[in-house]
Structures
1.
Amino acid sequence: MNEALQAPIVSQGLAMTAAVLLVFVSVIVAYLSTIEWKDRRRRRRSRDRN
């Protein structure tokens, strides 16, 4: 009976971990995309000046 009570806790823990990782990866991808976009703009401006 003890295992039956722990299974939902483990399942909830895994689901929470997966949700946190999904949010973390999404934020990192958005951050890197923004940095790359800003860098691309900066390189274009630098190239247009020369």
2.
Amino acid sequence: MTRRLTAAAPAEHPVRIALLKLIGEAGSVTSTEAAQRLGHSSGLCSFHLRKLAEHGLIEDAPRRGGRARPWQLVRTPPEAPEGSSLFHRELEDTSYRLWMERRDQAPEQWRQDDAFSAVLQLTPAELRELGETMRQALRGFRHRDPNRPGAAPVAVLARLFPLLTEPENVAGDAADGTFPTQGPRPEEGAAPVAEQA
């Protein structure tokens, strides 16, 4: 745990943040693949991948044939299965803090961001449906040419989670799988779900 938290600092460079997010999505990438996806040179991506490896954030992935060197995230130790999620949350928080600190230094057309939130009454199936709908929307942008004029890496974060009002009762009603939420009990298993994006 200590290694992961102290290693976050070397990942504050925006290129390294983008590389870590890309590896998390793709499973493994080479410097050439990263350059194609992020719009940077292969040499620049290779340099930052090696730095991330030096700080214990990524490691060699199984080779797919040829001389290309793929990288993957360091696997989470069995005793801390939720550590990977915490680590990526820390990276998200770090990248957003850097954006807020340096936004005034960005070109004028990039001095903006977009954020929204909502509370919806959803069933577990609808929560999964909403998550998949958002992923489908992202896929339409992911396959566009990363080298097109004006394109730059942009972080897109989304969190969907039920809202609980009584922490000591989060186990809920064993009979129907629901849990206490603010206000009257929703119909047909629906519960308040927070959407942040």
3.
Amino acid sequence: MRPVRRGEPTTTGNRTWLARRIAWRIQALAEGDLSEGARARAAELARDADLRVISPGAGPRPRACAWLRPRPGS
């Protein structure tokens, strides 16, 4: 059963992530959000980050070890 927030079921099945997300939100409300300088630095880092060349849905990756490959007919 998933936790309920404000009378609606959550969209995540990962309870640990949800608990952290709520804690971060409470902390941001209590202590204030990121400063403008921190936001600008995060945006700068995001612009300079390398993008993926291959999308995650591009298909199976080759396996490194022969013993991990599926056997023919299985």
